[in-house]
Specification:
Number of strands: 23
Strand order of the largest sheet: 1-4-9-6-7
Strand content: 15-25%
Number of helices: 16
Distance between the termini: 49 Å
CATH topology of the largest domain: Glycosyltransferase
Radius of gyration: 30 Å
Largest sheet: 5 strands, antiparallel
Shape: elongated
CATH class of the largest domain: Mainly Alpha
Length: about 700
């Protein structure tokens, strides 16, 4: 320990003597250093490409007929060399169709043949045939528009078959079927899209359920004109959703406007926009949601609107062990309750700092937030709310208290009406190591804006790192027996220590921190990718890859593992029917989707490969409606979104809040629904419908990154 303090003192002396402020910039912007990353030649990563193999929705029954089958989107051509038996029929059938009782359906197709005598169109399902119609063929072609009213019980195993009978004197020729359409009299929003919309240059995918036909079209809702058509690529059965899924790519459509997608078979999407500013409003509301979680200060109507309230939890708090009372006001209410936690605050601050550092232009001229100095919404103003509270939670010699909570969860009242005493829970190694990393990161971000604050943050970071237990033998401490309000578990401090060492190296260039980081990696090679409150290694890896010398063995190790993990995310996405990288559905799963998108964008910042940017966009699309629930998981945006979140302020006021990301499906809940559909829009279902600062912070980063990189 003594050696660490000597090293810390030396670093401080060096900083005071030689560190010069970075290039001066305006108060409301952050100028990032030009950093060139030169990767080793063997590091070149081939990211998996999306498989686009077209397969027709028609099955062919041909018996002994000799033919060549040409399959194209929206067209099936059969070149027949020998049809030996006139009694034998040729059948093209499409199945997995939905017929609902009382619904009317119109079947449309174009048919051409120089050897067919007649067609029989049949409707049915696994129980048998419902209806049939016979069409004689004249002059070799016919356009069929056939209406059918389904009076039987609902069926999801329906089919339509076109049975071809040949002329008696012709045994060879051509049969072609195209323009297969099946439309219901009612709108079926079975096509899933990003309900907020798309940036013009963003990759745009729609997800379809089988059977949606072979093609889709994009319709301009202003004039009802078709502006794009494309094939549907079916990816197979999706066990997570209980569906057969396919996707269609309409990235080539870049013109601003309002659109909807229509599938060839009974289905369409909600309306959406394409616009260069499509995420601007959402970015503002996503960040403002965190502002509305502020604790210990008056939130005026000018800042909070209908969510305004007087200062809350502003009495002196009691340190649970020892009984000392002090000022621990500030920070944010963590989630739907009023607890404040170091680990989740660290994650939130990290995300906001990186957003402001990498994408400063996206936080100028946004929706106005009157609490900022010049009336502009500034992500770094919000990060400071968390940083100032974390400083209050730091003991003088370095350790970090872990939480500020009441002994019991508050009732569903406004925060200023929660009069329970607040207790400060004892320090933990995860919190202490984590705050060292966050303060070091903040010192880098604020170096050119506020050099004085930057130096103070670095001093506090070094102090926390020196106080941390670097052997990682300490187990996570549980809440005292009489504290029933929230408890975030974290079984290891190695990831926080790795993050701290990497961040302190980036801030000081002291090679000892690189040596420390290498030791943590040696103990656990899986530290490199986490961006959660209990897995912070990804923040460290990004900083190492950005600042470590290219000849560093540690950098080479991290580089290889980091990009292998990123490639694995892309592969996981490609294998998923909804084109999202998820490996399960559990409490807070949407945070991990947002974290994956953020990690992909951090990788893109280091290595601008379009595959990384495209993959990040697919994660965002899932969160904004392109999922099996056809729901935007962010309140107040899209067509279909949560209305009953688990959040005490909104429930106390009986109002809705815009811009809050909910946790999403939870497969651990008892239900007969597939895992991806175990979601309830009900406030008591906190595992699916709670909102938190650390769900929203990666969302803020991702939205800003998409706007930045697609501009």
């Amino acid at each position: 320990m003594k050696q660490r303090w000597i090293r810390c003192l030396a670093v401080l002396i060096v900083l005071v003597l030689v560190v010069e402020p970075l290039e001066e910039v305006t108060e409301q912007s952050v100028q990032q250093e030009e950093t060139v990353l030169v990767f080793e030649e063997e590091r070149a990563m081939d990211y998996p490409e999306r498989k686009e193999e077209f397969a027709s929705v028609f099955t062919l029954t041909s018996g002994s007929i000799s033919l060549e089958d040409t399959v194209q989107p929206d067209q099936r051509t059969l070149s027949i060399s020998d049809w030996p038996d006139q009694e034998e029929t040729l059948t093209l059938a499409s199945d997995k169709l939905m017929f609902l009782q009382g619904e009317s359906y119109t079947f449309h197709c174009y048919f051409y043949s120089d050897l067919a005598e007649s067609l029989i169109v049949r409707w049915g399902d696994e129980s048998g045939t419902f209806d049939q119609s016979i069409f004689p063929i004249h002059n070799g072609e016919i356009t069929i528009d056939l209406r059918y009213s389904h009076q039987q019980a609902d069926t999801y195993t329906g089919w339509i078959s076109v049975e071809v009978h040949r002329q008696s004197e012709v045994a060879s020729g051509t049969v072609m079927l195209s323009e297969f359409r099946l439309l219901s009299s009612k709108k079926n929003h079975s096509v899933r899209i990003n309900q907020v919309g798309y940036l013009p240059l963003e990759e745009k995918l729609a997800i379809f359920q089988a059977n949606s036909g072979e093609i889709f079209k994009v319709v301009d809702v202003e004039n009802e004109k078709t502006v794009f058509e494309g094939p549907i690529y079916y990816t197979g059965y999706n066990e997570e959703t209980g569906e057969v899924n396919g996707f269609g790519d309409f990235s080539a459509l870049t013109e601003a406007g309002r659109y909807r997608i229509e599938a060839a078979v009974n289905g369409q999407s909600y309306e959406f926009r394409i616009d260069e500013n499509v995420y601007d409003e959402l970015l503002g509301s996503a960040l403002h949601m965190i502002t509305l979680q502020r604790c210990g200060q008056d939130l005026s109507e000018a800042v909070a609107g209908i969510f305004a309230h007087e200062a809350c939890h502003d009495d002196l708090a009691t340190v649970y062990r020892g009984g000392a009372r002090d000022d621990f006001t500030g920070g944010w209410h963590d989630a739907g309750d009023y607890g404040r936690y170091t680990l989740t605050t660290l994650k939130t601050v990290n995300d906001l700092l990186l957003a402001g550092w990498l994408f400063p232009e996206q936080f100028n001229d946004q929706n106005q937030s009157p609490d900022s100095g010049n009336g502009m919404l500034d992500v770094l103003d919000e990060a400071l709310v968390g940083l100032k509270w974390l400083k209050k939670m730091q003991i003088d010699w370095g350790p970090e208290y872990t939480a500020a909570v009441t002994k019991n969860f508050a009732s569903f009242v406004m925060p200023d009406q929660d009069q329970q005493p607040v207790f400060i829970l004892e320090e933990e190694n995860t919190s202490t190591a984590g705050v060292a990393g966050t303060f070091a990161l903040a010192s880098i971000v604020f170096a050119s804006i506020d050099p004085g604050r930057s130096e103070e943050l670095l001093t506090d970071a070094i102090k926390a790192y020196a106080a941390a237990d670097h052997t990682d033998h300490e187990e996570d401490k549980k809440n005292p027996w009489d504290v029933t309000a929230g408890d975030y578990s974290n079984g290891s401090a190695l990831d926080e220590l790795y993050f701290a060492a990497a961040a302190l190296y980036a801030a000081t260039q002291d090679l000892q921190y690189l040596t420390d980081a290498a030791e943590y990696i040696k103990k656990n090679p899986d530290l490199i990718s986490g961006l959660s409150y209990h897995e912070m290694g990804g923040y460290g890896s990004y900083l190492l890859l950005r600042f470590a010398p290219n000849d560093s063995e540690l950098k080479k190790t991290v580089q290889k593992a980091f990009y292998q993990h990123v490639a694995g995310l892309i592969q996981m996405q490609q294998d998923n029917g909804y084109q999202v990288a998820v490996n399960g559905y559990y409490w807070g799963g949407n945070m991990f989707v947002a974290n994956n998108a953020m990690l992909l964008l951090l990788a893109y910042d280091l290595e601008p490969d379009p595959a990384l940017l495209h993959a990040a966009g697919q994660q965002l699309a899932y969160l904004l409606g392109r999922n099996s629930l056809n729901m935007s998981f962010v309140t107040g945006v899209g067509t279909n979104y949560p209305h009953h979140i688990h959040h005490r302020i909104t429930e106390a006021l009986n109002v809705e809040m815009a811009g809050a990301l909910v946790g999403g499906p939870d497969e651990s809940l008892e239900s007969s629904a597939p895992p991806a559909k175990r979601y309830w829009d009900e406030s008591e279902h906190y595992s699916t419908n709670e909102v938190t600062i650390y769900y929203n912070s990666p969302l803020v980063f991702v939205l800003a990154g998409m706007l930045e990189y697609h501009s």
